[in-house]
Amino acid sequence: MKIVLTGSLGHISKPLATELIAKGHSVTIISSKAERQKEIETMGAEAAIGSIVDTNFLSETFKDADIVYLMEPPFNFFDHNSDPEKFWLDIAKSYAQAIQQSGVTKVIHLSSVGAHTDQGVGMIAIHHSIENILKELPNTVSIKTMRPVGFYYNMLAFIPSIKNAGAIIQNFGGDELIEAWVSPLDIAATIAEEMELPFDRRKVRYIASDEVSPNETAKILGEAIGKPDLKWIVISDEQFQSNLINIGFNLQIAKGLTEMNAARRNGKLYEDYYRNRPALGKVKLKDFVKDFAAVYHQQ
User: Are 179 and 211 in contact (CB under 8 A)?
Assistant: First the structure.
């Protein structure tokens, strides 16, 4: 099959491309960075260098593709001059327009846990809006929506508070709360699997690798970095948001992250996940901690 991937050589797109190429598919990888072209071509893929908000570029790149994989790139949380909601919605609209113009009929879209609603989930609500933009495409376009839980590498954000305060400090936590996490490798494997399964209109699939309480997470991370007594400390929403603002976060992002974490605490974020709970992937937290420890000791 001819498959077009957005996401450049990111945490998901690179292992996904590697697997698809190994299976004999023709893969085109979109990147905004010309310096990525050589690496992409060395992998055995075709490089398409351009902007994902350039609809004409996207349309031409999507043309004749059997499947396109869509993802929205991360926003710089410290950018005070841009609107994160506009940033992501502009990309979604560009995708939708390019799909219609190119005639693509099979799409896999990377969304997020919590995208089942736009109420009470903070910054995740934007994924609900993006999903709705894509849902407006004609029914002749089959869309598989992937909703992964929080990525393991998001835990790297715990490192500064561990080093500076000796603890993981969040506005959610405890033993009773079970937090789901996912490896990008398991996401890539799931997407590759879905590409070879039949497409029939619209489908949603959740992706997770492990489910661990915050306190157990602190114990596992602590043992990996030589701090077996590492604690997970819960602070108020107000304190958490204030901490984010104090270290330079965009105000909209700080509010959105605080509300998202509150949705973890009250169950809103995961309510649809538990109604459609997936089989867990192969990469467990105890596998990821080796990478966490390596980064921790480098910083």
Answer: yes
Q: How many domains does the chain have?
A: 1
Q: Which residues contact 39 (CB under 8 A, 6 or more apart)?
A: 9
Residue 226 resides in a domain: no
Band (82; pLDDT cuts 50, 70, 90): confident
For 186, the token pair is 């398991």
Please say if the pLDDT value at position 299 is more than 90. no
* Residues facing residue 2 across a β-bridge: 26
Question: Structure tokens of 32?
Answer: 């905004």
Q: Is residue 19 part of a domain?
A: yes
* Of 87, 73, 118, nearest in space to 256 by CA: 118
Q: Residue 136 carries which side chain, given as an amino acid letter?
A: E
**Residue-number span of the structural domain to which 24 is assigned:** 2-148+184-207
Residues 230 and 112: their CA atoms lie apart, in Å, by 29
251, with CB counted inside 10 A (0-12, 13-18, 19+), is exposed
Locate all alpha helices (DSSP H) within the chain, ordered by sequence.
13-22, 37-43, 55-62, 84-102, 125-135, 159-165, 184-195, 214-224, 237-246, 251-266, 271-275, 285-298
88 HSE (CA, 13 A, CB side): 23
Give the CATH number of the domain where residue 125 resides.
3.40.50.720
0.85 exceeded by pTM: yes
Alpha-carbon span 50 to 58, nearest angstrom: 8
- For residue 62, being part of any structural domain is answered with yes
229 within a domain of the structure (yes/no): no
Angle formed by the axes of helices 84-102 and 55-62, nearest 10°: 40
